[in-house]
Amino acid sequence: MSNDAKPMWARLGAATGVALLLVAYPLLFPGALNVGVTLVLFAALAYAWDVLGGWAGQLSLGHAALVGLGAYTFGLLTQSPAWARFGAEGIGLALAATAAVAAVATLLWGWIAFRLRGPYFTLSTIAVAEILRLVATNERRWTGGAEGLFLANLPPVAGLDPFDRTVEYYAALVLLGAAMAGAWWLSRSRFGYYLQAIREDEDAAMALGIAPLRYKLQAFALSGVATALGGALYAVFLSFFEPHGVFDIGLSIQIALVAIIGGTGTLFGPLIGSAVLVLSAEFFRASFREANLLIYGILIVLVVRFAPQGIVGTLGGLERRWRARHERDAAAHPAVEGLERGLRGASRPS
């Protein structure tokens, strides 16, 4: 087996082990399903954010707007008396409508906001999330206002209760699997290479014939649809939500941090970031009570300080350096042996 094949098989084995662990999680930890749903759902949301923030390099701190848009679209449709006539099929139709609304919203949002770059684009995403939060808070007739929206009932789908935590876990796992498949496709497709070119130097990419606005809009639409679907699952998980929760900038920052700490633009970074942040938050909350946010903040600062490329990016860099050093040593070894043989030959008596 070649040296290049060994890391590939090691990664494949690790990925298979992680996949089996995720599938078997409800059987292994039946008393910790809330943590499992949170971990998987936030990993899926981080993958969705990473399409725009990691692969395309457009830092968004307003993705909570898409979470809230998905939660309210799905919640208002499924709780509508007119929608009840669709029965179980109504849930699938509501998810399709949620995806369509998110796609249209992100295309309009991006068409306006992508005229801005860098921190100005980031500020515009925060502004849009705040506008939607204020609209949801003040339009009581449609959204319930600050009192929020309660998902009182949802019809069973194929005999499964949507409010069952195990069902919610596997629904979130399906979304996570689709998001990881999307990240894998981005790492190998021409579309993904175009996004990376735009991220590294937008002007140079434009000079090479790449249309940045077109590809950023497509990336934003993909990211928005996946985030809105995650918002719909988040609404079912919470059962009750309000504008200050689902449109909050704190939620946007949390989603972005999961991707950044795990490693943006990588296949496993958001999943690892979600595992680190969600599990550490649960551990610190149980162990340090009121001081848990302080410890949580210190952990984030340490990771950002010593692993600025994220956990996966930093480990990848260490692996590349180790392999380069190993190859240099292997290349230098025959030369050293030849030198030693030459010295031994010169020291023999004639």
Summarize the structure.
The protein is an all-alpha fold and 350 residues long. The protein has 15 helices and 2 strands. The two termini are 46 Å apart.
Can you tell me about this structure?
- This is Branched-chain amino acid ABC transporter permease.
- The protein is an all-alpha fold and 350 residues long.
- The protein is 77% helix and 1% strand.
- It is built from 15 helices and two strands.
- It has helices spanning 5-28, 33-55, 64-78, 89-113, 118-138, 140-143, 165-186, 190-200, 202-207, 212-238, 243-246, 249-262, 269-288, 292-306, 310-347, and strands at residues 149-150, 240-241.
User: What Rg do the Cα atoms give?
Assistant: 24 Å
User: Which spans have pLDDT < 50 for at least 5 consecutive residues?
Assistant: none
Average of pLDDT: 87
Give the DSSP E fraction (strand runs of 2 or more residues).
under 5%
The helix content, as a percent range, equals over 70%
| Shape annotation | globular
Spatial order of the strands forming the largest sheet = 1-2
User: Helical element count?
Assistant: 15
The description of the largest β-sheet is:
2 strands, antiparallel
Determine the N-to-C terminus distance.
46 Å
User: Class by helix and strand content?
Assistant: mainly alpha
Instruction: Give, in order, the helices and strands.
Output: HHHHHHEHHHHEHHHHH
> How many extended strands?
2
